[in-house]
Write a structure and sequence with these properties.
The protein is α+β, with helices and mostly antiparallel strands and about 180 residues long. It has one domain (about 5-170): Hypothetical upf0131 protein ytfp, CATH 3.10.490.10. Helices cover about 30% and strands about 35% of the residues. The chain is built from five helices and five strands; from the N terminus they run βαββαββααα. It has a five-stranded antiparallel sheet with strand order 1-3-2-4-5. The longest helix has 14 residues, at about 160-170. The protein starts with a strand and ends with a helix.
């Protein structure tokens, strides 16, 4: 089976989200960084629920932290399907990622970013808790975890909670 590296910087950093919500079991998970990008929270949802999600913004002096997952090709296809790549919710990007613990040669990884942006939205506290948990789980630097904790967030809306229940069911991989 061929494998690929997938760089997660949003809720997929949390292994429970990747395993539970998407039914994907990664071969490996490594804390990593990609240069030339930074994480922002301006990605609007597909449905109007009033919240934003993590996104990448090109920044020549920036770096985005996240988790590199080694996935099978069909697992990556499932991530892209459930993240809405086919309908323009995200675009697939190839990036060079360096593991934090052993930053030798970079690896080529796939990540997702969106050209859709809405600066007036902010993420929910529930969503940010997933990112913080994922960052801690994979040993991302304390400064980064502190930065995530400081991102302005709002309580999850009722519309978002209802929509999330629908999405959770739709995203589950069927045997």
């Amino acid at each position: 089976m061929s494998t690929l590296w997938y760089f997660a910087y949003g809720s997929n950093m949390q292994t429970a989200t990747l395993r539970g919500r998407r039914g994907i079991e990664p071969s490996r998970a490594v804390a990593a960084r990609i240069a030339g990008w930074r994480v922002v929270f301006d990605k609007p949802p597909l449905a109007p629920i009033g919240e934003s999600f993590a996104n990448l913004l090109a920044d020549p002096r920036g770096e985005a932290l996240g988790v590199l997952y080694e996935l099978g090709a069909t697992d990556l296809e499932h991530v892209e399907l459930t993240e809405g790549v086919r309908i323009g919710n995200y675009d697939r990007l190839e990036v060079e990622a360096r593991p934090l613990a052993n930053p030798g040669e970079p690896v080529t990884a796939v990540t997702l970013a969106s050209h859709r942006r809405e600066a007036s939205l902010m993420p929910s506290t529930r969503y940010m808790a997933l990112l913080i948990e994922g960052a801690i789980e994979h040993g991302l630097p304390e400064e980064y975890v502190g930065w995530l904790r400081a991102v302005p967030a709002r309580p999850e809306s009722e519309a978002a909670a209802r929509f999330r229940a629908f999405l959770d069911e739709a995203m589950r991989r069927r045997a």
